[in-house]
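Practice problem. Given the sequence and the SMILES for S-adenosylmethionine, write out the predicted structure.
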Amino acid sequence: MSLPPPELPAPLAAAIEARLAGRTQATLRESARRLSERYRSRQPTREAIRDETDALAYAATRMPATYAAIVTALGRLEEECPDFVPRRMIDVGCGLGAAACAAATLWPSVAEISLLDSSALLLRFAASLMKESGAAAAIETIDADFATTGAIEAAPFDLVVAGYALTEIADSELPAVADRLWSQTSGALVIVEPGTPRDHARLMGVRARLVALGATIIAPCPHQAPCPLPADDWCHFSVRLARRRAHRLIKGADAPFEDEKFAYLAVGRFGAASPPSARIIGPPRAGKAGISLRLCADKAFRETFIPKRDKPRYEKIRRKDWGDPLRAPAEEI
Ligand SMILES: C[S@@+](CC[C@H](N)C(=O)[O-])C[C@H]1O[C@@H](n2cnc3c(N)ncnc32)[C@H](O)[C@@H]1O
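Answer key:
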């Protein structure tokens, strides 16, 4: 089963490019520079993005990568739960709507989308981008603070997604936010965060809370036990995406692609159809004699080596990548 393409869908990319065409490159470059500076000093997005030009700089330089990470995490959910057909979804901390767009691309069944953010500027921008890119779903915007708002809506959503949003709230707010996000789903909850040690550690706190609330872990963990990684290690994944021309021009970046590192968690009121026995949690290292893999398996983390001379196992494994699930018995290693 293949993952969805990581690049922004063409209609959304075209809608962003149409808006970029109305600004000079110098203005966008300056906004992108200021945005990076504000993010480096850990300013939250609602302070870092102050006007439409800043929002466009985000659309050109960050949104393609956050979209890539989110659509990959949602792809992992779909891979494990092929019968899941969400109709109503909410994009919590939507920014410009990367998660909403990823969900609508992956599941054409999504007919109602709620966009929630505490930035009125971003909410307006996200809703108009979705309309300009021809979204078929009905769009609702909710101007609210997800860290303090009680129930977001009375009726739960089939799918709740928070993409790169929890990273902006305080540690002390995480437990209540985890409870609230979980209470808002009748199906699945997916949280995607930057792939850093800090965000992984926080996500593991949220994971423990969700398990205590009765959530079933669908991905990436192939088990429900506490995370077995040592404290100085962190579980994260990577997605490679082609850089659009606008991104290269605005950031002055030469490389035709970028690698976005992310951490994620997909949980549900149901489990995987056929839970994997292990997941590859690092880039496979191929050598002359075989392949080394970092695996999360059997409630434990381990390194394993598959020699080339073990042909049947080697042939199965060599096509696998970082993030892929392994299923017993055929791929048991
Ligand atoms: C880094 S941006 C990510 C945007 C988008 N989800 C993406 O993946 O591109 C974080 C977003 O979360 C929103 N946000 C942060 N804290 C929030 C809060 N407490 N309530 C509502 N929105 C919040 C910010 O306004 C911003 O739009």
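Check your answer against the key. Residues 63-80 form the longest helix (18 residues).
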